[in-house]
TrEMBL record:
UniProt-listed Gene3D superfamilies: Vaccinia Virus protein VP39
Compartments in which it is found: Mitochondrion matrix
Similarity annotation: Belongs to the methyltransferase superfamily. Rsm22 family.
Oligomer and partners: Associates with the mitochondrial ribosome (mitoribosome).
Major site of localization recorded for this protein: mitochondrion
Name of this protein: Ribosome assembly protein METTL17, mitochondrial
Alphabetized GO MF terms: 4 iron, 4 sulfur cluster binding; metal ion binding; methyltransferase activity; structural constituent of ribosome
Length: 389
């Protein structure tokens, strides 16, 4: 009994000696000697360019299909995807409608008798106000034409963003050699090309999942050099329109880039993240636009992974956040500016020169884009960091 009590006091003493706030080991005082941009924990890449085979195939395909006004369509699609918001939840919509109705009824003179005509007028006012104040999210159907527009607008930048994010794993965990990839919302294949460029033949299986058959066909066409009869530049690439059903089937690397906002509500996003985490054997990598909306999507996913509670999961290894910030505390930037990074890339050699805007900014010979990301993993891998954390 005395030994148990002594042990309890020992634990209590140890816990009281530590602060609840994260502590930074700066005993070497190196933070005052090194500029922030040269911190060894900050990963910077030079201008990223698509592999020559992918670039040539994309250019060949776009010339072959010869879509009129492709420049305008691609710019419109880019702006639409960049500014897209999450669909409002039914509960939030009802709360908003109730508040508006209360405000309109309060504005009526107290002496005025409320008639059915008044109720109809208030209902019309509420619906009109909701249409003006609520983002009208609509599902986007990726037909053959829209898929080609996406290829022209996002293939090069998407590849650069994914390459920059995967470099976090490639540089910090050099022993990690994924043999299998699951890419949810694979689109035109940016993740497949980026994964192959980093890990090459160590990857024995690329499972690409996209609900759009047109996107899958276009992705395969790019891998074949633009001709249906061409040889696959990357072998063992498989396409599906739905995630594999078995919860026991896992992949070393699971990714989802710019796909979470295609899902219709929070419940669908949570179920998808749970399904992706179920299939994660090593790393789960999520990439979204570097906007406040994209950052919030990633924080939703982060909460879902860390909270757990998935009844179908069979791999009970705990979830850990690998990057960008390797902690499990609340993100301090969630209600402020989005947490994002800037990456320069070489755009496809198309006829037009891209207009400078908030999405793609020309700088130093390349085009800059802003993106956000989240990397989770199942075990405490040795990241080989040589800087304080």
């Amino acid at each position: 009994m005395l030994s148990i009590r002594f042990r309890f006091l020992q634990i209590r003493t140890m816990s009281s000696a530590t602060s609840g706030k994260p502590q930074l080991d700066n005993s070497s005082n190196f933070l005052s000697e090194l500029p922030h941009r040269k911190h060894p924990g900050i990963l910077n890449l030079n201008i990223v360019r698509l592999p020559k085979e992918a670039e040539n195939a994309a250019e060949y395909i776009l010339k072959k299909f010869n879509i009129q006004h492709l420049e305008e369509y691609a710019a419109s699609l880019t702006n639409y995807l960049w500014s897209r918001k999450r669909p409002i939840e039914d509960t939030d919509l009802r709360i908003k409608a109730s508040a508006l109705e209360t405000a309109f009824r309060t504005a009526l003179p107290e002496s005025e008798i409320v008639t059915p005509a008044h109720n109809r007028k208030i209902k019309h006012q509420v619906l009109t106000a909701l249409r003006k104040q609520t983002y009208n999210w609509q599902p986007l159907s990726y037909t053959e034409q829209i898929s080609l527009m996406y290829l022209a607008a996002r293939f090069d930048g998407g590849y650069a963003a994914v390459t920059r994010v995967l470099q976090e794993i490639y540089k910090r965990v050099p022993d990690f050699k994924p043999e299998s990839l699951l890419d949810f919302g694979s689109g035109v294949g940016s993740v497949t090309w980026a994964t192959h460029a980093l890990w090459g033949t160590s990857v024995k299986e690329y499972m690409c999942v996209d609900t759009s058959a047109s996107m899958n066909q276009l992705s395969e066409l790019i891998l074949r050099g633009g001709e249906e009869s061409g040889d696959m530049h990357i072998n063992n690439v498989y396409y599906r329109q739905f995630l594999p059903v078995s919860p026991k089937m896992q992949y070393d690397l699971v990714t989802s880039a710019f796909s979470l906002n295609e899902l219709p509500n929070l419940s669908a996003r949570q179920k998808t993240i749970q399904a992706l985490w179920r299939k994660t054997g090593g790393f789960l990598v999520l990439v979204e636009n570097g906007t406040k909306e994209g950052h919030q999507l990633l924080m939703e996913a982060r909460d879902t992974v860390l909270r757990g509670g998935d009844k179908e999961i069979w791999d009970n290894r705990p979830a850990c956040i690998f990057a960008p910030c390797p902690h499990q505390l609340k993100c301090p930037r969630l209600q402020k500016l989005p947490c994002n990074f800037v990456q320069q890339y070489q755009s496809l050699p198309l006829k037009w020169v891209r207009t400078t805007n908030y999405i793609n900014t020309t700088f130093g010979g390349g085009v800059c884009r802003f993106d956000s990301y989240l990397i989770s993993h199942r075990t405490h891998l040795n990241a080989g960091r040589s800087f304080p954390s």
